[in-house]
């Protein structure tokens, strides 16, 4: 792109550079302070800008404050970036001048047509003056010179286009000096498949300068098999200075929230731009909930293509699960002390569910095995009998596929009776878990309108078609009242259901309490509740996602699962693992839920669907990441979610003074648990320090520690 | 309903009981080595044979690894596509991206360079925006 100015000019510039080396003086930074906040420069709203739609949920999930500048409708001015108390633009070297952002993310590399050469100058001057980094999410590796004389270059990433493609096996080539600073969390030994359009480039690394005299020096971090750069650090060097005047991380790969490679790269765009010091944090989570412990699940019958027969776990299944869990931890270094969570229904663990007081059924080998091995697992209240909590039909005697409760007290009894069984079996962490509830089949959060059994409604292809969703008034207020009076704070939801895929306080229903229940979504999987072995799963999966559509004259390839042909168990597991890893890489805490049938031992090696799934997930994850996986109990997931929601609703003021290397923090309200990355004294995770800080209206100072020596 | 050959994925299989090293894969390895010894009499001695066997094993492992990588990528692409289809905003975003690349192409022409790569990118995203 750049005009050829010839050898003479290069020699002249080299001579000037040598002279500057001798006389250069480092700039003075009076306050040298910036707010901990990111500027995201976009080409449009989320509806138009794929990059903004990609990075916004990442920032939101991590709790990172940011401001979006939409170049389509807004102009960038110096005062937008740094202003005095009078509102006029100021420079870092002026006393009292604080930069508004400690990092810049561009959703597109050249920001055409919204960004003018003058705006590029304003942005670059801010980055240089306040020593702020920039991350570019995607786009053309531009080198643009002004159209008017002297045709000086205002934008140059130092890259030359080489090829385009959307199928690269990219290799990590992170230089040693960046090994503690960028992409510390990825498995650099494995290729990263790139599946969207990318411009592959070569670093130019010549002496061509931008208008400010800086020369881009490119170091690729991710390359194609042919050695072309896909993701690079560009350091803008001036001969007189050892340190770069500006630093940019540029990706020429298209990124979107639905792309796996984008999920792998996402964190570093934030981490790089902020120099590893920012409000917010990210952790990788995985929890597996095994629902319906002590119950009997109906089984899928492959010969009949419908449910027939039952399965209930045995004591041998539980001891097998203990060994499989130990084997999982041993095989996967990131799994740590991973534990399964059992959501249990105590009616199946007592001698007589109707008799009061309740008595544990010690003769049941499942009950005995659970109690003998209780320290290996965690437990969650799943109600006493797994009763349906949906609204009653109107009128009350209308036909309904399930029985319903007509008062809150009966629902409350379902919750408290299970708490009593918890005590009878002396299962661990009872008090902590009294605050948590998973209703049977997540019932009570939508109205199924009494259609639940496919056999009773052969004309309905989709039984959920008539459901009234949570946000449309479908939840049962009686359940919410009962939960409130029973002391439940966290209520499980199903992410596959409308309006249940959001962690939210349930404010729209009156439950008679001063506080609101917090909805905690859980991910369903395609390891169905009614299968114990691979052939059963394979059969039901292909019936539901392939043959059912073929039989109805529909194209299964165009349906939700995109099953263009029947899938093998191995293929189903691979898809499950890929999907789950995407959930994990979104930094969400949401657990995945299964059912007790999935823990049945199905062969002489002790294999189970549940541990096949876990092994596949960890294998896939460890192919991409090295970060330890957090496996939290559900009540802690609730606590952390509540803390995050509180922090997100606060206005946090954070200023990083680079001279003292301290951050001053305050908020407009009490935030007892604010996660901040890059402050000393926090938890070490992925080579960085993550603090859990209590902040209020009073300003407090914290030392910065970027963790670069760890 | 029959769904064809069943492929069962066995995670964390334990070593079968019996004489250590004479079971499963290890036994196959020994048999392969013996076969090679008797197939190439006097061809450079045991070291060469061991090298040949090791190379073959490496080659097989490489092929398996490549096949696994390919399968992984295919799986990834299925999910990429599935998730992209669920993104209600994607067609509009792809359209905007294509429009942006057409603008970039104009700039590249102004700079005296070849706009073909970005025009191709524009066409790529136009096609994607129209697929829904």
Automatic annotation (TrEMBL), chain A:
Pfam families: Agd3_CE. InterPro entries: Agd3_CE. Keywords: Signal. Residues 484-609 form the Agd3 deacetylase domain. Residues 1-30 form the signal peptide. This is Agd3 deacetylase domain-containing protein.
Automatic annotation (TrEMBL), chain B:
Residues 54-80 are annotated as: Disordered. It comes from the Bacteria. This is Uncharacterized protein. It comes from Nitrosospira multiformis.
């Amino acid at each position: 792109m750049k005009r050829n100015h010839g050898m003479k000019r290069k020699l002249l510039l080299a001579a000037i550079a040598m002279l500057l080396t001798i006389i250069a003086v480092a700039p003075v930074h009076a306050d040298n302070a910036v707010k901990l906040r990111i500027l995201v420069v976009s080409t449009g709203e989320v509806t138009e800008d794929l990059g903004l739609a990609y990075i916004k949920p990442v920032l939101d999930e991590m709790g990172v404050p940011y401001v979006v500048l939409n170049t389509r409708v807004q102009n960038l001015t110096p005062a937008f970036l740094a202003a005095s108390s009078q509102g006029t633009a100021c420079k870092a070297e002026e006393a009292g001048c604080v930069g508004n952002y400690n990092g810049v993310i561009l959703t597109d590399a050249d920001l055409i047509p919204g960004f003018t050469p003058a705006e590029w100058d304003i942005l670059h001057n801010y980055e240089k003056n306040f020593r702020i980094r920039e991350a570019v999410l995607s786009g053309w590796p531009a080198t643009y010179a002004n159209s008017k004389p002297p045709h000086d270059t205002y934008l140059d990433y130092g890259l030359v286009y080489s090829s385009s493609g959307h199928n690269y096996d990219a290799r990590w080539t992170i230089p040693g000096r960046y090994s503690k600073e960028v992409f510390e969390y990825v498995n650099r030994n494995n290729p990263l498949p790139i599946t969207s359009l990318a411009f592959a480039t070569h670093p130019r690394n010549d002496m061509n300068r931008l208008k400010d005299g800086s020369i881009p020096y490119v170091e690729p971090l991710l390359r194609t098999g042919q050695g072309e750069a896909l993701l690079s650090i560009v350091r803008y060097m001036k001969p007189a200075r050892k340190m770069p005047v500006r630093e940019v991380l540029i990706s020429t790969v298209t990124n979107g929230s639905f792309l796996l490679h984008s999920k792998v790269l996402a964190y570093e765009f934030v981490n790089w731009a902020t120099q590893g010091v920012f409000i917010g944090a990210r952790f990788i989570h995985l929890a597996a909930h095994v629902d319906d412990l002590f119950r009997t699940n109906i089984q899928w019958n492959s010969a009949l293509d419908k449910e027939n027969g039952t399965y209930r776990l045995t004591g041998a299944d539980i001891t097998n699960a203990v060994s499989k869990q130990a084997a999982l931890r041993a095989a996967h270094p990131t799994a740590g002390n991973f534990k399964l969570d059992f959501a249990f229904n105590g009616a199946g663990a007592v001698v007589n569910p109707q008799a009061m007081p309740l008595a544990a059924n010690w003769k049941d080998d499942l009950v005995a095995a659970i109690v003998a091995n209780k320290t290996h697992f965690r437990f969650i209240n799943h109600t006493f009998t797994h009763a349906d909590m949906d609204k009653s039909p109107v009128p009350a005697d209308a036909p309904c596929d399930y029985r319903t409760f007509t008062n809150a007290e009966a629902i409350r009894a379902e919750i408290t009776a299970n708490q009593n069984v918890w005590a009878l079996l002396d299962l661990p962490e009872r008090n902590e878990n009294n605050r948590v509830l998973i209703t049977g089949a997540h019932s009570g959060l939508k109205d199924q309108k009494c259609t639940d059994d496919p056999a009773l409604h052969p004309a309905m292809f989709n039984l959920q078609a008539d459901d009234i969703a949570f946000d449309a008034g479908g939840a049962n207020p009686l359940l919410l009242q009962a939960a409130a009076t029973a002391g439940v704070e966290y209520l499980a939801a199903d992410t596959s259901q409308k309006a249940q895929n959001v962690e939210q306080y349930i404010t729209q229903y009156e439950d008679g309490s001063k506080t609101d229940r917090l909805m905690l979504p859980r991910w369903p999987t395609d390891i169905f509740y009614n299968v114990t072995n691979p052939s059963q799963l394979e059969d039901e999966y292909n019936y539901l996602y392939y043959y059912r559509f073929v039989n109805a004259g529909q194209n299964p390839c165009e349906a939700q699962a995109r099953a263009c042909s029947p899938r093998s168990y191995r293929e189903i597991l691979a898809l499950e693992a890929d999907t789950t890893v995407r959930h994990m890489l979104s930094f969400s805490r949401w657990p995945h839920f299964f059912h007790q049938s999935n823990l049945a031992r199905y062969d002489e090696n002790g294999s189970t669907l549940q541990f096949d799934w876990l092994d596949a997930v960890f294998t896939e994850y460890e192919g991409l990441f090295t970060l330890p996986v957090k496996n939290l109990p559900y009540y802690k997931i609730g606590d952390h979610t509540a803390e995050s929601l509180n922090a997100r609703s606060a206005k946090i003021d954070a200023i990083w003074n680079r001279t003292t290397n301290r951050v001053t923090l305050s908020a407009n309200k009490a935030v007892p648990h604010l996660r901040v990355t890059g402050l000393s004294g926090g938890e070490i995770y992925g080579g960085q320090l993550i603090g859990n800080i209590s902040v209020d209206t009073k300003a407090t100072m914290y030392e910065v520690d970027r963790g670069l020596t760890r | 309903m029959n769904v064809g050959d069943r492929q069962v994925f066995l995670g964390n299989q334990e070593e079968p009981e019996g004489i250590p090293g004479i079971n499963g894969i290890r036994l196959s390895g020994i048999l392969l080595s013996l076969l090679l010894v008797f197939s190439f009499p006097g061809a450079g001695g045991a070291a060469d044979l061991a090298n040949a066997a090791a190379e073959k094993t490496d080659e097989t492992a490489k092929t398996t690894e490549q096949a696994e990588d390919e399968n992984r990528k295919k799986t990834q692409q299925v999910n990429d596509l599935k998730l992209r289809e669920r993104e209600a905003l994607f067609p509009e975003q792809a359209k905007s991206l294509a429009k942006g690349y057409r603008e970039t192409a104009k700039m590249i022409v102004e700079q005296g360079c070849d706009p073909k790569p970005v025009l191709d990118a524009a066409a790529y995203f136009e096609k994607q925006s129209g697929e829904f």
